[in-house]
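Proteins fold reproducibly. Next comes a concrete instance:

***
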Amino acid sequence: MYHFGKEAVQKLALKRESHPKLYKLQWLKKRGEVTVSKRALVSISIGFTYKDDVCHVVPMDSCHLLLGRPWEYEHSIEHNGRSNTYSFLFDGVKITLVPSKPKQLTTKHSGTLLTLSQFQDELEEADNVFILIGKPVPEEVKIPECTVPLFEEFVDVFPDDLPAKLPPL
């Protein structure tokens, strides 16, 4: 059983139809359970050997295509925990799925702001989010009590005088 991301189905303009038997899945979206109510015929291939046509359409944040537990069972998938690979035989050919290489994290500060989607992700995932809003604040605005210890701890970071505008980029 394959699960294909709703967004990918829309972008590829695939024809969807109602699923004959609704069922629910978890862990595919950040906000809990999703209902599988649509399906679409999607051709997938792994290399030149493995090809298949089946798909259930679900909204997912995790990926565009999910080869689920039923698919693993049908194909007698073997998982190697040390190398994090999945292998199976198809028409006498051994196929091994390997993980994607992780994106390299940069330690260099780019000076850019978060995009709206990055900001929304942080709001959903973090316990606390601090925002710096670059606009004048009236004197009568009260600083939230929870931020006072932070300002006191890092008093040397906040200058007394701030420039009227940002330097040119």
Summary: The longest strand covers residues 16-29. Strands lie at 2-5, 16-29, 32-40, 43-46, 50-53, 56-58, 65-67, 78-80, 85-90, 93-97. Residues 116-125 form the longest helix (10 residues). The chain has a mean pLDDT of 75.
